[in-house]
Amino acid sequence: MYEVATGKEPFGGVPADGRPADRVPIPPSVLCPEIEPALERAILQCLEEDPSRRPESAKAIAALLQETIPSGCHGAYVNLTRTR
């Protein structure tokens, strides 16, 4: 999500040792000022270094993203909580 929103890799690429060069990504709003704050929070939560602070599942990520959609929006927005 970070790369889609900003056009950059969140950790500046991965060096030969496999560890991210920067442990904390640049906030997406620095690279893309028009990003919605709720979307930025969702992206950064997914990138937390501590796994216990990240969403536990794809469904939890979908719920975070659902919060970024303004109420009453239709059309281009997708219902991320729909089940089959």
Describe the structure.
The protein is mainly α and 84 residues long. The chain has one domain (2-66). The chain has helices at 2-6, 28-31, 37-46, 58-66. The two termini are 24 Å apart. The model is unreliable at 74-84 (pLDDT under 50).
Helix and strand arrangement:
Elements: H1 2-6, H2 28-31, H3 37-46, H4 58-66
**Main pleated sheet:** none
Low-confidence stretches: 74-84
Compute the number of helices. Answer: 4
- Average pLDDT works out at 78
Write a concise keyword list for the protein shown above.
84 residues, mainly alpha, 4 helices, 33% helix, flat, disordered C terminus
Short description:
The protein is mostly helical.
